[in-house]
Every structure is written in C-alpha cells, then in structure tokens.
Amino acid sequence: MEQYYYMDGQNRKGPFAIEALSNENINGETLAWKEGMDDWIKIKDIPELEPVLRKIPPPAPKPSGATSQAPNFPEQPASAVSTEDQQLASAGNRFLAYLIDAVLITVVGLIPVLGAIVGIVYFLLRDALPFLNGQSIGKKAMKIRAVRADNGAPLTDDYGKSALRNVSLLIPIFGLIDAFMVFSDDKKRFGDKWAETKVVIESGV
C-alpha cells in the first residue's frame, strides 16, 4: 500500500495511506513525498492523489466586505524543512536496536553456510531492504530509522549508503571506536559521515 508524507507548515506529517490523506489539512499546493520519489511535489501535480483532492471540501467563503488578505509567504525548500524538523535518535535506542539486530544475525548464523552469508548481507543492507520499509528489525522495534542527512529521506533501496554506513562496524577495533561515536554531539558514527546519513526518531512517534 502506497503511503505518503506531507508538509504542514514546517512539520513533516505521515506516513498516511492515500485514502487517509483526504482527512488531513491539505490542498493542491501541499508538498507530498513517498519512498521512491526524488523530491517533494505539490499534491496537485501527483496524478495518483487526484482522487484525494476531489474529496477535499472547498474553502469556506470569505465574509462579505473582507478586504484583508493573508500574506503569501514563499514556500521553504522541502529538504531543509524536513531535516531540521527531525529529532536525532538517542544513543541508548541505537544501541538497543543494534543489539536486537545482532541477536537476530547470531541466530541466523547458526544455519550452516547459508546462515553466515545471509547474516552478513542483512548486516550491511539492513537499512535499505524494501520489504522492511528501509528499516532494520532492530530499528523498527525501537521506532528509529537511518535517513539521508541532506533531505531526511529513508534509505529504502539505497544499498550503497546502507552498506557504507554499516561496513565500518565490521572493521576490528575501529568498529568498536566507531560504535562509541553515537555519544558525540552530532550522534554520528564514522559510517554515518561516510554515507552522509543520520539516525532519527521515526516520524509520527
């Protein structure tokens, strides 16, 4: 089922199923985005959301004699708004998410030959797997996710960034140092800096 986010002023709302969007405070000028889209687009320019606009009641008429008009502020770039509005995940939640994933990988690794391969692939690509909505099982349990640092978009299908941000944890000794980087001010590991990602609290939590 397709799910969209939309911008409400400077707040990113969602995700919402298409049918649920008609109950939200949106119009044709509202910016919307879903996984797989390169950028935020006005709802009126998204053919898939045309039925949603038809369900939205027209605005109430202005009182007679009203002459004042609300100022028309320019829209802020969607990428800047969404990134500033996202709250970074705590070191504790990131550790627990990693622990859950590590336990899962250990259990899968008990399967001869195939288990080790599956475990390594999952470890590297867990933040980009589409069937998990770009969210590892551990992160899903802790309601956090890895996103792009530039526009706040999930890493779904971006296997390169997922592998780049996770491979540092496999390097002996360095991986341990890297893990402790989540206690820094910007809460970014070396892997996050290499891949230009960050870990945030899931939107809507």
What does this structure look like?
It is a single chain. Helix 4 runs antiparallel to helix 5. It contains 9 helices and 6 strands; from the N terminus they run E-E-H-E-E-H-H-H-H-H-E-H-H-H-E. The chain has a 4-stranded antiparallel beta sheet. A two-stranded antiparallel ribbon has the order 5-6. The chain folds into 2 domains: 3-59 and 69-82, no CATH class; 86-201, no CATH class. The chain has 205 residues and is α+β, with helices and mostly antiparallel strands. It starts with a strand and ends with a strand. The model is unreliable at 75-81 (pLDDT under 50).
Jot down its keywords.
205 residues, alpha+beta, 2 domains, four-stranded antiparallel sheet, two-stranded antiparallel ribbon, 9 helices, 6 strands
User: Span from first to last CA?
Assistant: 20 Å
What are the secondary-structure elements, in order, as H or E? EEHEEHHHHHEHHHE
Q: Strand portion, in percent?
A: 5-15%
Kindly state the mean pLDDT as a whole number? 83
Count of spatially separate domains: 2
The dominant shape is elongated
- Provide the helix percentage: 25-40%
Structural class: alpha+beta
Q: Count all strands and give the number.
A: 6
* Low-pLDDT ranges: 75-81
Rg on CA atoms, Å: 20 Å
Most strands sheet: 4 strands, antiparallel
Strand order of the largest sheet: 2-1-3-4
Note the total helix count: 9
Summarize the helices and strands and which ones pair or pack.
Elements: E1 3-8, E2 11-17, H1 18-21, E3 31-33, E4 41-42, H2 50-55, H3 78-85, H4 91-109, H5 114-125, H6 137-142, E5 144-148, H7 159-167, H8 174-179, H9 190-195, E6 197-201
Antiparallel strand pairs: 1-2, 1-3, 3-4, 5-6
